[in-house]
Amino acid sequence: MSLSKVKHIVLVLSGKGGVGKSSVTTQLALSLSLAGHSVGVLDIDLTGPSIPRMFGIENAKVTQAPGGWLPITVHEADPTAGTGSLRVMSLGFLLPRRGDAVVWRGPKKTAMVRQFLSDVFWDELDYLLIDTPPGTSDEHISLAETLLQKARPDQLAGAVVVTTPQAVATADVRKELNFCIKTGIRILGVVENMCGFVCPNCSECTMIFSSGGGEIMAGDFGVQFLGSVPIDPQFLVLIETGKRPRYPEGTLVNGQDISTPAGAPHIEEESIKDAASLMQKYRACSLAPIFSKMTADVVSAVQRANLA
């Protein structure tokens, strides 16, 4: 199995579509890399692979190797800066054109998931994050069965479950938590995404979708609540254009002032998209400190699980 050199496998799950699993996966990966860990991201959302776009590497093509594929490198490790490497694999890299539809029945999806788990040469990784489609269908069952059968007990660290605050979302996500319980997958914690909106023109962070639903759900299941994440258009601008996030004076997110320092340079050339600098520009994003804490909590949860 190509996962033999992976230390910890973390699934990113949700029973609801459109809650931002890929966004959460991307930011967890960037935060882990900033913390010095070597990271891989495997995108098994076969009908909607968005991870290549999130990292700005849509035009990349995987290299075929004897017996499998080499993942795409987003950036290498930088020991002087204390950052780790980041590599990505997705069906999006294998499609002839970006807009091509994947019209597959269950057995072919199952075979593709198993092939991704066995035929991608990750080499040494501290963490492999697996971005999944919504629901508890063929891909999830194949993923759970394969990992529980073939991965070492200490490899499958568990799942991070993503929801939005509304009751209609948490009702579906509860099914995902039950899926984890039934399949024996440890739940590392719950992330409540889209709990507010960071206005790019003023200093307000408005709770447009309410908040607290994810925390209540985590309490009901007795699992850790990792935190709430607002919608930040500046993060979307960073992903789409590569422009460094900037915030007006007095911008507060989760009680923290993330205003752009007065006199900070505004370089127009930064609008040029550069995957290699994505991690460094992400440091200026309002969501970076939120995910830094979440990442530390996930790492702690994994370590506690290994000691148990």
Automatic annotation (TrEMBL):
Chain sites annotated for binding ATP: G15, K16, G17, G18, V19, G20, K21, S22
Stored InterPro entries: Mrp-like_CS, Mrp/NBP35_ATP-bd, NUBP2/Cfd1_eukaryotes, P-loop_NTPase, YlxH/NBP35
Xref: CDD domains: Mrp_NBP35 (cd02037)
Entry's Gene Ontology molecular function annotations: 4 iron, 4 sulfur cluster binding; ATP binding; ATP-dependent FeS chaperone activity; hydrolase activity; metal ion binding
Alphabetized Pfam families for the sequence: ParA
Keywords: 4Fe-4S, ATP-binding, Cytoplasm, Hydrolase, Iron, Iron-sulfur, Metal-binding, Nucleotide-binding
Gene3D superfamilies membership: P-loop containing nucleotide triphosphate hydrolases
GO process annotations (BP): iron-sulfur cluster assembly
PANTHER family (UniProt xref): CYTOSOLIC FE-S CLUSTER ASSEMBLY FACTOR NUBP2, NUCLEOTIDE-BINDING PROTEIN NBP35 YEAST -RELATED
Function: Component of the cytosolic iron-sulfur (Fe/S) protein assembly (CIA) machinery. Required for maturation of extramitochondrial Fe-S proteins. The NBP35-CFD1 heterotetramer forms a Fe-S scaffold complex, mediating the de novo assembly of an Fe-S cluster and its transfer to target apoproteins.
Name of the protein this chain belongs to: P-loop containing nucleoside triphosphate hydrolase protein
Lineage, opening ranks: Eukaryota, Fungi, Dikarya, Ascomycota, Pezizomycotina
